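Hello again, I could really use a second opinion on something today. Take your time with it, there's no hurry, and the full record follows here:

___
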Amino acid sequence: MKRLLILLTLLAAAWAGPVQGQSGGLATFTTASLNIETAAGSDHAFNVEIAETPDQRAQGLMFRRQLAGDAGMLFLFDRSEERAMWMKNTLIPLDMLFIDDTGKIVRIEERTVPHSLRAIVSGGPVSAVLELNAGTASRLMIKPGDRVRHPAFR
């Protein structure tokens, strides 16, 4: 039932048409530094855009033709719960890292397919999702259990 509700929410958003911010244009984002510490002892720095409003989260990385190798987008949510993402209008493949409220990566969906309407679910409660270029998690050996360091996490 929960998955059906998530799917219906995604389909409703698809029928709503192009994403626009309150001003009628595309949403804008602030940027911040973020680090991922791996269990192997590596520390990887990223410069991420923050998606924390409904308009920003709805738009995400849609319509982008490229993303710098050390860039990404951090989706922040008000509460921890199961989340679903998708790739509608997203032109570049991504890795999605699902993060709990302590900053622990709980699931990674690698190499998502551009334009796909398939729901990519967290598989459990999360309070954030980090999107990076496809292949980044594998290349940097980022795995579930690794830690994301950012002020949003305790």
